Structures
1.
Amino acid sequence: MGRSSKDKRDVYYRRAKEEGWRARSAYKLLQINDDFNIFEGVKKAVDLCAAPGSWSQVLAKKLRGDAGSESDVKIVAVDLQAMAPIPGIIQIQGDITKKSTAQAIIGHFDGEEADLVVCDGAPDVTGLHDIDEYIQAQLLLAALNITTHVLKKGGTFVAKIFRGKDVTLLYSQLKIFFPFVTVFKPRSSRNSSIEAFVVCQKYSPPDGYVPNMSNPLLDCQYEMDYNHLEGPNRVIIPFLACGDLSGFDSDMTYPLELEPGETYTYREPTQSPINPPYKDACELRRTDRLSKPLLDFPIPNSADVDSAR
Ligand code: SAM
C-alpha cells in the first residue's frame, strides 16, 4: 500500500466518511470554532479556496442549522476548481487573486459585507519547502487582499498559514488590519504538517484605507491601480544611495593600486568559504577531471581509425 493512501486513513479521515464531510479538514474548522466561537452572530460568510467543500458544509450547518432554514444567511464559496453543489451555498468558480472575484462575491451580498471570511487555500505542493512556503504566503496575502474588499469592520478572517521561517512578516502584515491575530493548530491538523491557521479578529483597517488590488503579484495595472493611491493606501519606502560620486563604483574593474616598484602580495581571505557550491568543481579541476567525459571504453586514436579503413 502506498504511503499516502495509508496516511489518509487516520481517525479524522474515517470520521469524515462516517459523518458525511467531504474532507477531513471539516474538523479543523470545527475545532477552530470550539476555541474561538467564530460563527457567533454570523449571517454572511465567504469560504475562499473551498473545494471539495467540507468547510462550506460546516458553514451551512452552523449558520443555517440542520434544517437549513435561516433565510437571511448567505454563504459564498470560491475555488479555482468546480465543486459539487451544497444546499444553501452560492458557488463561484474563480481565482481569489482577481478583483473580479471580489466584485462577484460582493454582488451576491447585495452590496453588503461579510461577517466572516475563511480561507483554507493551499497551492499544489512542490516538496521544495522554501517555494511552497513562499507560494502559500502569496495565496494568504491574496486572501487578505480580497478580504479587505468583502469583510465588514469588526469581522473575522481565518486562514491557513505555513509556519515557515519568514512567517513573522505575515503576522505583521495581518496585524495592520486586525488588532487580534492568533495562530492555532487544530488537533486534526497533522503534527508533521507545517500548516496552522491564523484567526484574525475585529477587522479594523488603517484610517482612510481603501481596498485595492495593489499587490503587484495580483491583477493590477501599476499606473491605474497603484500609482494614484494616496495616504495610508500608498506605502513609499525612502530610497537612499549612500556615498558620493568620488567613491569607487562597484560595477567597475580598477587596476591594482600599487606604488611604483611595489609588488603584489597575495593575502588569504579573512574567512575562507565553508562549503562553497564550486567546491566540487575545484576538486575536479585539481585532479584534472573537469569537463572530461567518463567513458568506460577507450577512445580510438587516429592511427587505429586509419588502419581500420
Ligand atoms: N477547505 C476545503 C475543504 O474543506 O474542502 C479544502 C481546500 S483545499 C486544501 C485547497 C484549495 O485551494 C484547492 O481546492 C485549490 O483549488 C484552491 N486554490 C488554490 N489556489 C487558489 C486560487 N488562486 N483561487 C481559488 N482557489 C484556489
2.
Amino acid sequence: MQRIFSGIQPSGIPQLGNYLGAIRNWVNLQADHECVFCLVDMHAITVWQDPAKLRSQTLTQAAILLASGIDAEKHILFNQSAVSAHARLAWIFNCVTRLGWLNRMTQFKDKAGKDRENHSSGLYVYPNLMAADILAYKATRVPVGEDQKQHLELTNDIAQKFNHDYGLEFFPTVEALIPPAAARVMSLRDGTKKMSKSDPSAQSRIEMTDDADTIALKIRRAKTDTDVLPADEAGLEGRPEAKNLVTIYAALADTSIADVLSQHEGQGFGPFKQALTDVVVNTIAPIAQETTRLMQDENHLVKTLRSGAARAQAIAEPIVSEVEKIVGFVK
Ligand code: AQP
C-alpha cells in the first residue's frame, strides 16, 4: 500500500478551495492508502500568527478534518511541531537546496510581493520544510491543489540531489495527486486570485464553518459580469469570475462544467447564484454542524493529535535518524 503525506496550514479556517483541492481528496484516498495528515503549524508561522489564534485554529482544523471524514484511528492526524523529525530534516534540506531553485518558487513571489526584504526567511525556505514533511515518511504520493505542484517538483529535485550527493537511492520519487476538478478555486472577489484562508477579505472565501445565511450572502455578493451563462465552456473564456462559480458548482455537484452549463444556459447570475448556494450549503452544513459538536470536547481533539504524533514519530524517527547518520552526524 502506498503512503500518502499531505498537510494543511492552521493559518485560518479552511476554505472551500482547501476542501475541493485537498480535504475531499484526502477522505477518498483513505480507502486504499496509508495516510499521514498533518496540520503544518510550523509552516503557518512563516507569516505572523497570533499565538492564541494559532492554537485555536489548529484545534478547529482538526475538528473540520474529522468532521469531513478523516479517520484518525485508521490513519494518522497530528500537528507538525509535535514531531521534531520535520525540523531536523528541513535543516539538512536547507543545506541541499540551491538558492537558485528557491528563487524560482512562485508562491514565495506571490506571498512576499514587492516587499521581499521584510518577509521571514522561513517563508523563503518553506518548500524545504515541505520536502522534509513528505520525505521524513518516504511518502510516495501527495494530494495537493494545483498551487503546490511546483513545490512538489522541488521536493523531487531535493530528493534526487541528496541521493546523488551521498551516492544512495535513499529517497523515493514523489507523485503529486492533483484533483481533476476544481484544483484551483478562485477568490469570490477576484477571479484571477486563488481563494485563500488568509485573504484579508472574508467575503473572498467560503469558510468550512460558515452557516447557510453567511454562505448565501457571500455568494450573492460574489463578483460576476453582466452577461448570462453561456452554452459551452468556450463561452467562459475571459470571464474568470463566471468560470470560477461554474467550476465550484460542477465540483460540488460531482458533474462536468458542460453539464452545469447545459442546465443553466441563458440564465442570469441571480438564479444561478441561488442554485449554487444550495449546492454549497448541502456540502458544508453537515461538516460545520459536526465541527461544532467536536469543538465542545477540546481534550479529545488534543488527545487525537497526540496519539497521531506518537504514530507519526514512530515512522519518521528511524528514517530521519538514518539520514543524520548518512550525513555524518555522530548519533
Ligand atoms: N484556492 C484553492 N484551490 C484549490 N486548492 C487549494 N488549496 C489551497 N487553496 C486552494 C490546497 O489546500 C491544501 C492546503 O493548503 P495550505 O493550507 O497548506 O496552504 P495554501 O495553499 O497556502 O492555502 P491557503 O488557503 O491559501 O492558505 P494561506 O492563506 O494560509 O496561504 C493544499 O493542498 C493546497 O494546494
3.
Amino acid sequence: QWQGIETGIGNTQYSGQVTLGTAQSGSNYTLTDNARGGHKTYNLNHGTSGTGSLFSQSSDTWGNGSPSNAATAGADAHFGAAETWDYYKEVYGRSGIRGDGQAAYSRVHYGNSYVNAFWSDSCFCMTYGDGSGNNKPLTSLDVAGHEMTHGVTSATAGLIYSGESGGLNEATSDIFGTAVEFHADNSTDKGDYLVGEKIDINGDGSPLRYMDKPSRDGASKDYWYSGIGNSDVHYSSGPANHWFYLLSEGSGAKVINGVSYNSPTSDGLPVTGIGREKAALIWYKALTTKFTSTTNYAGARSGTLAVAGDLYGTDSAEYKSVADAWAGVNVGE
Ligand code: ASN
Ligand code: ZN
C-alpha cells in the first residue's frame, strides 16, 4: 500500500548521517522506501526466519551510529539497499535487482553473533548478521552491494556457484559492491578496491578481500591456473577481481582516496587503466548479454572482449586494455 515518500535521517554506523526513504503509517514512520520500489527493512531481533518486524517508530531519525541501538543496523541496511538501487538505476537504467521495478527487502539482527550476510533468491531478500565479539555488524555499503548483486547475477547470467563460474559469480559481487561504494560518494565510507574493510571481519583491521592483488588476503588467487575451479569461490574470484582492478586503474602502484595499491601482472607487462566506469560497464554488459550459467574464465575473456569491441571498436584503447588485463591475470586466447 502506497504511503507516500518521506525523507528520514539515518545515523548509520558506517556511512555517517544519511537521508533515508521512509513512509508514514498512522502516527509512526517506517523504513519503507517508496522512491525505490517500496524496499522495506525489518528487524529480525535475533530470529532466523520470517521477517520479524518492520522498523517503525514515532520519530523519522533512525539509529545513533552505535550498534547497541537496534535501528542503527536498520539505517545502514536501508541506506545500502538505496545506494545499490540507485547505482543500477542511474548507471544502467536497471530498475531493481530483477530489472522489473520490484524492490527486495532487508532483514537485520539475524540470529546471534552471526558473522555473515547473505542474499536469498527464495525470499528475494537480503539478511545481515550482527558479527561477534571481535568483529562488527555486516551492514556496510560494499557488503550490501556485494550481496544484492548476487540477486542481479541470478536474474541474468545465472552463473553457477561452483567451479570457475562460481568464482566469476563472486567476482561480479565484489566488482559491483565496489562500484556501489564508489558511486555512493559517501564521505565517511569512501570508495576503495577493498571488500569489507569496515566490518573488521578478521578482528585485526584488515579487509576481507583486496582487488589490486587478491593474494594479500592469504588465500585468494592473483592469476588464473588450470584447476582454479577447485578453490572456494571466494578465492577463485581473485583473477576476475584483479582483472577489474587492472582494467580500471592500470598496473603498478597507485593511491586512491588515501588507500595504497600495487597491482602486478602475471606476464610482467603493463596494463593501462580505462577508468572504473568503463570497466564496470563492460562487465555489466557481459554479465547481462554474453555470460551464461556455465561461463568460465575463457568465456569471460571472450565475452568482455566482444562487449568492448561493440562499445569502442576492436582497434580501441579500451579493447586493448581488456585483452592486456586478461593476459595480466594469465587468461589467454
Ligand atoms: N557472504 C557470503 C557471500 O555472499 C554468503 C555466501 O556464502 N554466499 O559470498
Ligand atoms: Zn558473495
4.
Amino acid sequence: MPHTFPGHFPATRLRRGRATDFARRLSRETRLSVDDLIYPVFVTEGEPVNVTAMPGVQRHTLEGLLREMTDVVALGIPAVVLFPVIDPDKKTLDAEEAANPDGLVPQAIRAIKQEFPQLGVMTDVALDPYTSHGQDGVIDDNGYVLNDPTIDILVRQTLAHADAGADIVSPSDMMDGRIQAMRAALEEKGHVNTLIMSYAAKFASSLYNPFREAVGSAANLGKADKRTYQVDPTNTDEALREVALDLKEGADMVMVKPGMPYLDIIHRVKSTFGVPTFAYQVSGEYAMLKAAIDNGWLDERSAVLECLGSFKRAGCDGILTYFAKDAARWLAD
Ligand code: PBG
C-alpha cells in the first residue's frame, strides 16, 4: 500500500522468512531430536502400579521393565534412568539397602545390560527411596541431614551401580563434596569410563510431589522438606556455584532441575561453562501438562514438543522427560 509508507518501505520484513514452510524450515535455529532424550523409569519389587498423579506412568516389575526397554530401543532413545520403589520393610534410618550389590537397581541394570548392551543406563544416586524418613541422607536426632556420613553410603551405592554395569551415575542428593568422593572411588575401582551426571542445580521445588508418590517416599517424608540441601528457588548465583564445584570435582555432565520454570538457569549454566547440560522436566511438569491435555485444554503433541524444544533453545544438550517415548514417536513421523 503506497500510502502506508509514503516514499519508503520497511527494509526488514521478518514475516518474509515466515511466509512459507520451506523458509521456516531453513531458518530453524534449534532442533529437538531423539538423541536428546533420556527416559526415566520406575522399577518395583512389588506389583505393577499406575502412578495416579502421572497418567501414563507405571511402576514396572523387572519383566515389565524389559518390555519397556524393548520399546525404548526400537524408538532409538539413547538412555534411560532408573528409579527404584523399595519394599517398605527394607527402608531403614541409614538406608543400608541402597548399597546392596544385589539390590533392585543392580538387578535391573544387569537385566537391561544383558538384553540391550548398547542402551545407556543411568542410575539415581540418592537415599530417599531407601530411608524410613524419606530424606536423601542420613539424619541426626533433629532430622538434619548429615553431609559426610551420607557421602559414605552414596559412594558405596555408586560402586554397587557401577559394578553392575551402570554407564552414568547421577547423584540427586545435593550433599557437598559427593562428586569428588564418587569420582575417586570409581577411579580406584577401575571404573574410569563411568560418567557422572550431577544434579548440580537442583532446587527445593514443589514440583517433585508426583515423583515422591511414584517412588513411594511421600508418606515417609510426610510434611518434612528438603530445603537444608536443595537450592532455594529464588537463587541463580548459588546454582552457578553448585555447577562450578561439581565440574571441578569431576562431573562430566550437569543437570538443572526442575526444567521449564528454570530455563534462565539452564541458559546461564550453558553460556558460562559450555559443558554438556541437561534439564529434568520433572514429575510436576509432566502432571501439569497431562492434566491440561487430558481435559482437552492443550493439544498433546504440539504442547509437549514446544515445551521440550524450549530446553534446546535455552541451551540444553538433552532432557530427562517422562514424554520421551511419545516425543520419539512424534519426531519419527
Ligand atoms: C530424589 C529425587 C527426586 C527426583 C529425582 N530424584 C525428588 C526429590 O528430590 O524429592 C524428582 C524427579 C521428578 O519429580 O520427576 N533423590
